[in-house]
Amino acid sequence: MVDVDPVIIKNRNGLLLYGMLHTPMGSQRKKTAILLLSPGIKSRIAPHRLYVKMAERYAIEGYVVLRFDYHGLGDSEGDVKENLVADFYRTVQQGRYVDDVLAAMEYMEEKQGIGRFVLGGLCGGALTGLFAGSDDMRVVGLFGLGIPVILDGNEVDPVKNMTEGQAERMRGMYYRKLLDLQAWKRFFSLKSDFRVIWRVLKPEESKTGMKSPEGNGSEVSNFNPLFPPAFRKMVFSSRKLLLIFSDMDRLYWEYDEKFWQSHKDMYKEKMDYIDVRVLKNANHILSFPESQKEMLNWTCDWLRGNYP
Length: 308
Hints:
The chain is an alpha/beta fold and 308 residues long. The chain has helices spanning 50-60, 85-92, 98-112, 124-134, 164-176, 181-188, 194-201, 227-236, 250-263, 289-306; strands at residues 2-10, 16-24, 32-37, 64-68, 116-122, 139-145, 210-211, 219-220, 240-246, 274-279.
């Protein structure tokens, strides 16, 4: 049996955050709680009610699970002042909601008597959990679904920052369309993005960075400089990470090409704390039932093995 109750959390600015608490009934309740952190501009429900399904499954496993809306989102108090989604995402990628996560942990300690947490989430929720957990030893682990390692923003050029993995996948798609009449009609209608086509089909003449705003011709990456130190703090303080990516999502290639390949040597002695997996035939929001099922099985196995 699982009991589901609404909760109200006050953050450090006095704003009320609304959430739902899933509590396992009986003696199977574990001493570690799970906080599901909202993805991007989405609410505590997540796309396709993903967080509801996750909370129900984890509560059956014996974990108290809290999912809540950040300030300015969903039912919670506060405002979002950014006009463009990309600019809002950038603030999330810079730690916009870390204080709300800390407030949620303080609520759980005070009201539920639980002081050990595993943080989990999709996309921006995973990154917020990494930032919050890196400096707070109450967090004993993190599972992230499609964690981003880049900075979005209105000024960021996604074509110039495309990874080779993403370009290779799109290259295969374009080659398969060579005999597709509708694809050629779209091409000649001038509705296609010719910059993307050029980047994909002529990779040797492309750049992966974007021009420096100083106009000096140098290239700068859209890589998030806050990601490596937070990742390092978690791993070198012996907290475990489970990172799940979807093979139809560019975020895996960004993680691998922009972070892991240049940082992996320092983690040779810490690989027991890093578990990276890729879901086959899955998209970013895990909209397919089979993707959700496999992700839930992976995360439950990981939780049982590390936080019994």
